[in-house]
Amino acid sequence: MQTKRFFVTLDLNPLFFFHRQGACGVEARWQRRFLDSYEDAKSKSPLGALRETKKDSPGPTASAPTQPSKRVAFAALHHRNFRIYFVATMLSMMADNIEHVISYWLLFQRFKSPVLGGFAVISHWTPFLLFSVYFGALADRHDARKVIQAAQIMYMGVSLIWGVFFLTDTLQVWHACVLLVVHGMAGVLWSPGSQMLIHDIVGAEHLQSAVRLNATGRQLGILLGPAVGGGVMLLFGPPTGLFINAALYLPLTMWLLAVPYTGHGERQAAGSRASGLRLRDALEVMREASTNRTILSMVLLGGRDFPPGGQCVPSSDA
Length: 318
Known about the structure:
This protein is an all-alpha fold. It is built from 13 helices and no strands. Helix 2 (25-44) crosses helix 3 (46-56) and helix 4 (80-111) runs antiparallel to helix 10.
C-alpha cells in the first residue's frame, strides 16, 4: 500500500529522479524497471483506474483554461430573497422615521417643552449605548427572525398607541416618555438580528455586497422617512398618518414568517450552539476593537460627523 501511494504521487513526472543522470548503462536499466513498476502500480490504484476511464471517454484532450470570475455589481440583489429583505427593511426604517416626524411635531405642539424634546433624543440613542452588547448576544443565541419580529411588533404598537392618544387628545407627558423609551428599545433590538440574517440569505460569496446594500437601504429609509412623514401628516392628519405608518412594518414581519433563515445557518450546519455572553467577553471585544486602527478610526469619524442631538426636534423658538 505504501508503494502505491509513492508511485501515485510521482504521476506528474515519473522520470523525476533520472532527470539529471540521463538514460544510459545501469541507470537505463533501473529507469526501465522503475517505469515498469510505476505503470503496474498505477494501473492497480483507484486513481489509475479513474484516469483510464477518463482517457477512454470522448471529449477534448485538454480542458479549456479557467476564466477568472467577474465581479458583479450589486451581487446580493441577484438573490430574490435579499431583494425582498432589502425593500422590507427600507420600509421599516422609513416607518421609524415617519413616526419621529409626526410624534415629535405633535409633542412640540402640545407641550412646547425643550426638556421633553431632549428626552426624545436621549431615549432614542441611550438604549444603543447600554443594551447593544446584550441584545447582540440575544440575537446570537436565539432565532434572529423572532428577535426582529419582536422589534417590529414593538414599533407597530408604539405607532398605534401614539395615534390613539393623539386621536383622543389624552396624551400626557409620562405617556410620551414611556412610548419614546419603548421605541428606542425596539431600535436596538432590531439592529443585531438584521445584520446576522443577511449571512444566511446570501452566503459568504456575496456577503460584502449584502452588508453594503443593507446599510444603503437603511440610510434610504432614514432619508425618505421625514419627507414621506411630512406628506402623510399633511394629507391624512397626524393620527391617521400614524395608523398608516404602523402598516409599513408589516411586510418585513410577515416575510420573516415564510423564510427559513435564522441567522445561524453555518452554526446549525456544524451542530454547535452559541455560549452565553459574559461581561468579561464584552470587555474583551471592546479591548480588541480599541486596538484595531480601522475600527477605531471608523468609530471616531462616525462620532465626529454625527450631528449634535442626533435628530431634528423643533425648538421652542420656532
